[in-house]
Write a structure and sequence with these properties.
14 helices; five-stranded antiparallel β-sheet; globular; alpha+beta; eight-stranded mixed β-sheet
Length: 804
C-alpha cells in the first residue's frame, strides 16, 4: 500500500471515529436540566403557613431568584408585610456573628413567633467553632436573636443557653406531668421535669424512671426499631420512642396497640459493599397467603396506679386495630412535646377494626371499665375498603367517611353509632374532612369530580351543613387546590395549580372570598432555560366508554415536522396513578426524559386512582398483573392517531415498583406493540411481595374449614410465567438492598428469561433501597441511553455519566 493511500484511509477512519464520538443534540438538551441545575432554577411553589397563637395571623418563608424572604400575614387587616429589612438584617448579623451575609444569602433557622405575635426568635450558625468547654459538645458556634417585627429591633441574646436537645423518645401527657418511653423492650415513665433534665443530659443520675411492664420481648415489645432483630441493639439500656401512644384528655390513661410479630417469618438482604465484609440484614416480612401473621393487642394503662389492662378486641382472624386520634391544632405555640390524645372523652375512645381481606371494617368504641370493645358502625363490601379519620363533635356526634354506595361520602352518626343523616351525596368523591366549625355546624371538606365539565382529579374545598344539603364551592377555579385552614375556620391558604400553569397562592375567607394574592412562583430561570409546560389530554379506555386523563411531556426544542418515539411512564395503583395533575417540578421519569428526544406520557387506567368511583378504583381487583395494560395500549394508539409527531412503531414503557411490575408485564403481553421497557424495582412476583399491597389490591380468599380453621388463599399472575413471550428489549433495574420490594422479584424474572433463552439487560444498584437514593442521576442517564439505543438507534453510551 502506497503512502498516499494509507494516509487517506487513516484520515477516513479518524473521521469516522470523530463522527461516532460527536455529541447528540438531544443529550445536550437533556443536560440543560440535570437535577443539580434544576435545584437552582425553581424554588418555592407553595405557601406553608405557620399560624400565630392569637388572631388570624401567620408567617411563612418563600424563596425566589432574589433569595428567601419571610412574610407576616394579618387576614383581619388584609395585609402582608415583609418580616425583615433583609439588607439591614444582613448588616447587623455580619457585625455580630463576624461572618459575611447579604440580603440574598441569610442562614436563618428555627424561626418562631412568640405569643404577642410581634416578637420572633431565631438562630444563626457561625463558621467559627464553639469555644471548648468541659462536658459540652463541640461544633460551630450558634448565635441567638430576638426580633421585634413592629420596631424592627434586633437583639442579640448573649446569655442564651444552648437549645435543649430535641428528644425523640418521649410521649408527653396533655397535662405535661408524665412522659412515657421504652427501654429494653419495656415501657417506663418519668416526670416531665426529669424529661427536661434529659434534654440537657440524658445520663443525669437524678432522673427517676418507673418501670411499667416487664414482659416485653423481641418482636413483641415496646419501642423495637423497625426491621431490626439484633438483640445487642435492642437490650442496651437506651431510651426509645414508642409509636402510637394516645392519651386520655385528663392524662390519667393512655392506650396503645402492640403487635406480636414473633411468628412472622424473616427475610434478608445482603449489603455486599459493606466494610470490612458483606453484612446480612434480617427483618420481619409477611408475604401474601402466609398464616404467620402479626397479632394485634390493645392495652390501657392507668397512670394513677401504673397498671395495665388488655382490652378484648378479637373478631376476625389476623385482624388489625387502629386507634383514632384527636386532630392537633395548627397554631404555632412555640411549645414542643405536644401530646397525642385519643378521640373521645375521659371515659371513652374510638377505634377501627379490620378483617384481613378488608371486606369487613368496624368502627368501634371502648368505655373505661368494660372488658371489650363494641362495634357501632359496621362497613361491609365484597372488595377491599378504605377508611378516613373519624371526626367527633362535642363528644356527641361522629362524622364518618364511607364508600358504601359506590362513591366516597360523609355520614353523620350519634356517638353511639345511630345514623342521623347523610351529609354528602352524588356521583363524586369526598377525599377528606378539612375542618369542622362546631358553632355554626359547618363542615369543610375536599372533594373531586363534582363539576362534570372539569377534570375529575382536580380537588376543591367545599362547605356544607352537618345536617346535609347542597355543598358550596369555596375554592373556585379549574385547578388542583391544596388548602390549609386555620383552627378557627376563618381563613384559608389556597395553593392552586395545574401541570400547565404557574403555581399561585391566595388567601381566602371561609366563604371563598379572596382576601389577597400571597405569592406566584418565580419561573424566570425555568423559562429562560427553555422550559415549557406539559399538555393534559383525555382519551377513552379500551372499553370505549370510560374517560382516561393523562399528561403529555414533549422536548422543549421539539420540531413538530419530525416524529418522536413515545414512552409511557406507568404505575398501576390502585392507591395512586403515575399521572400528576397539579404542577410538580421536572422529574427523571417524565419531562426530564422527554428532553432526550421522546414524547413521554402518563395516563390513568380503569382500576387506578381512588379519587373516582369505587367501580373505577376496584376494576383490577383479582387481576393485578393484566388489568391496566389494554387501557394504556388504547391510549397510545389514540394519541398517535391525533398527532403526526408520534412514532407508533417505536413505543417504550417504563415504571418503578408497581410500575416495574406493570412495564414488564406490558412488553411480555403485548410484545409486538412495546419495543423497549425499563422496569425498576418491580414486584414481578407478588407472592413474595408484602401482604398488605398484594392482598389488599388483588384480593385474598378467606376459607373456613369444617373444623373451623381459617386460612387465606392467594394467587396472582407473575411475570416469570410469561417470560417466554419477550420479543423486544428489556432492562431490569433493582437496588440490591431493597427491603420493600425484595430483589428476588427481579431475580425470578431473570431466571425465567435465561431458561427461555431470551436476551435482556439488567442493572443492579449497590447499597440502594427501593427509591435508588443517590444513584437516581446515574439511573436517569442509563434510562436515556436504553431508550435512545432501542427506540432511536443511537445513544451516547461513550460519555461517562459523571461528566454530565
Amino acid at each position: 500500500m502506497n503512502k498516499t493511500l494509507f494516509l487517506a484511509l487513516l484520515l477516513s477512519v479518524c473521521g469516522l471515529a470523530a463522527k461516532a464520538q460527536e455529541r447528540l443534540p438531544e443529550y445536550l438538551q437533556a443536560e440543560k436540566f440535570t437535577q443539580s441545575k434544576l435545584d437552582n432554577m425553581l424554588f418555592s411553589t407553595k405557601v406553608s403557613p405557620n399560624w400565630m397563637q392569637k388572631g388570624s395571623k401567620f408567617w411563612y418563608s418563600y424563596k425566589t431568584t432574589k433569595g428567601t424572604q419571610w412574610y407576616v400575614v394579618d387576614a383581619a387587616t388584609r395585609s402582608q408585610k415583609e418580616l425583615f429589612d433583609l439588607d439591614e438584617l444582613a448588616a447587623q448579623l455580619t457585625e455580630i456573628v463576624k461572618d459575611p451575609f447579604d440580603a440574598q444569602h441569610l442562614s436563618i433557622r428555627n424561626l418562631k413567633a412568640k405569643e404577642d405575635a410581634r416578637t420572633f426568635t431565631f438562630e444563626v450558625q457561625s463558621t467559627k467553632d464553639k469555644p471548648k468547654e468541659k462536658g459540652k459538645k463541640g461544633g460551630k458556634e450558634v448565635f441567638y436573636f430576638s426580633y421585634d417585627s413592629q420596631t424592627r429591633q434586633l437583639t442579640h441574646i448573649k446569655d442564651h443557653e444552648d437549645e435543649p436537645k430535641r428528644l425523640s423518645w418521649g410521649s408527653v401527657s396533655p397535662d405535661k406531668k408524665t412522659v412515657i418511653f421504652a427501654k429494653d423492650l419495656n415501657l417506663y415513665r418519668m416526670s416531665y421535669e426529669d424529661y427536661q433534665k434529659a434534654k440537657k443530659n440524658e445520663k443525669d443520675s437524678t432522673i427517676v424512671e418507673i418501670q411499667l411492664t416487664t414482659d416485653g420481648v423481641k418482636d413483641f415489645g415496646y419501642g423495637q426499631p423497625g426491621n431490626m432483630l439484633n438483640t445487642d441493639t435492642l437490650m442496651n439500656g437506651k431510651r426509645r420512642g414508642v409509636y402510637g401512644i394516645l392519651w386520655s384528655p385528663d392524662s390519667r390513661y393512655f392506650a396503645i396497640t402492640v403487635d406480636d410479630e414473633r411468628a412472622v417469618k424473616d427475610l434478608w438482604v445482603i449489603n455486599s459493599v459493606a466494610n470490612p465484609r458483606p453484612t446480612l440484614e434480617t427483618y420481619k416480612y409477611q408475604m401474601p397467603g402466609e398464616k404467620e401473621a402479626p397479632i394485634s393487642h390493645l392495652y390501657l394503662f392507668d397512670m394513677s396506679n401504673n397498671t395495665r389492662k388488655e382490652i378484648k378486641t378479637s373478631m376476625y382472624k389476623d385482624q388489625t386495630i387502629g386507634l383514632e386520634r384527636k386532630p392537633r391544632q395548627k397554631r404555632d405555640t412555640g411549645v414542643e412535646d405536644l401530646a397525642s390524645v385519643w378521640l373521645g372523652d375521659n371515659n371513652r375512645f374510638f377505634l377501627t377494626r379490620s378483617s384481613r381481606d378488608l371486606h369487613r371494617i368496624d368502627v368501634c368504641t371502648y368505655t373505661l371499665g368494660d372488658d371489650s370493645i363494641k362495634t357501632i358502625i359496621p362497613e361491609r363490601m365484597n372488595t377491599y375498603q378504605e377508611t378516613r379519620t373519624l371526626r367527633l363533635i362535642n363528644n356527641k356526634e361522629l362524622v364518618h367517611w364511607s364508600e358504601r354506595d359506590g362513591w366516597a361520602h360523609l355520614y353523620l352518626y350519634t356517638a353511639d353509632g345511630k345514623l342521623k343523616n347523610r351529609i354528602t351525596k352524588g356521583a363524586w368523591h369526598v377525599e377528606d374532612v378539612v375542618k369542622i366549625d362546631e358553632k355554626s355546624r359547618t363542615l369543610y371538606f375536599s372533594a373531586c369530580g363534582m363539576n362534570p365539565k372539569e377534570n375529575p382529579y382536580y380537588q376543591h374545598l367545599y362547605k356544607v351543613s352537618l345536617d346535609g344539603g347542597t355543598p358550596k364551592l369555596v375554592t373556585p377555579g379549574d385547578y388542583v387546590h391544596e388548602v390549609q385552614m386555620d383552627d378557627d375556620a376563618l381563613i384559608i391558604v389556597d395553593n392552586y395549580s395545574r401541570v400547565n400553569t404557574v403555581p399561585k397562592t391566595d388567601l381566602l375567607d371561609a366563604n371563598g372570598n379572596k382576601i389577597m394574592t400571597l405569592q406566584e412562583a418565580d419561573f424566570s430561570l425555568m423559562f429562560a432555560a427553555g422550559y415549557k409546560f406539559p399538555e393534559p389530554f383525555v382519551v377513552k379506555a379500551a372499553d370505549g366508554v370510560t374517560d382516561l386523563y393523562g399528561v403529555m411531556y414533549k422536548p422543549f426544542n421539539m420540531d413538530s415536522t419530525k416524529v418522536y418515539p413515545i414512552v409511557d411512564y406507568v404505575y398501576p395503583g390502585p392507591q395512586v396513578e403515575a399521572t400528576e395533575y397539579a404542577f410538580r417540578n421536572m422529574t427523571v421519569r417524565t419531562d426530564r426524559l422527554a428532553q432526550a428526544g421522546f414524547i413521554v406520557v402518563t395516563v390513568g387506567q380503569r382500576g387506578g386512582h381512588p379519587n373516582r368511583s369505587k367501580w373505577y378504583h376496584n376494576y383490577g381487583y383479582g387481576n393485578m398483573r393484566d388489568y391496566p395494560l389494554a387501557d394504556h395500549k388504547a391510549a397510545i394508539e389514540q394519541l398517535a392517531a391525533r398527532h403526526n409527531f408520534i412514532d407508533i412503531n417505536n413505543v417504550g414503557i417504563h415504571g418503578h415498583s408497581g410500575g416495574g411490575f406493570m412495564s414488564t408485564a406490558a412488553i411480555l403481553q403485548y410484545p409486538d406493540f412495546f419495543k423497549a421497557a425499563v422496569s425498576c424495582a418491580g414486584n414481578h412476583d407478588n407472592s413474595i411481595y408484602n401482604r398488605w399491597w398484594s392482598e389488599t389490591h388483588h384480593g385474598v380468599k378467606e376459607v373456613v374449614s369444617e373444623k373451623g380453621d381459617t386460612t387465606f388463599q392467594y394467587k396472582i399472575g407473575t411475570n416469570q410465567e410469561i417470560a417466554s413471550q419477550l420479543k423486544g428489549h428489556l432492562l431490569l433495574v433493582h437496588g440490591d438492598i431493597d427491603n420493600n420490594v425484595h430483589p428476588g422479584n427481579t431475580i425470578r424474572v431473570i431466571n425465567a428469561l435465561i431458561k427461555a433463552g431470551k436476551r435482556f439487560d439488567m442493572l443492579f444498584l449497590p447499597q440502594q433501597r427501593h427509591s435508588f437514593g443517590n444513584m437516581n442521576e446515574y439511573f436517569y442517564w442509563r434510562l436515556v441511553d436504553y431508550f435512545s439505543e432501542h427506540l432511536k438507534g443511537r445513544s451516547e453510551h461513550f460519555v461517562d455519566i459523571p461528566k454530565r
